[in-house]
Amino acid sequence: MADSRTFGDLYKTKDLTEDALAAAVAAYVADLAPGPREIAPGITLDIAAAVAASAWATGVLGREEATEPHKRAAVRTAMLLAQAE
Question: Is pTM beyond 0.85 here?
Answer without folding.
Answer: yes
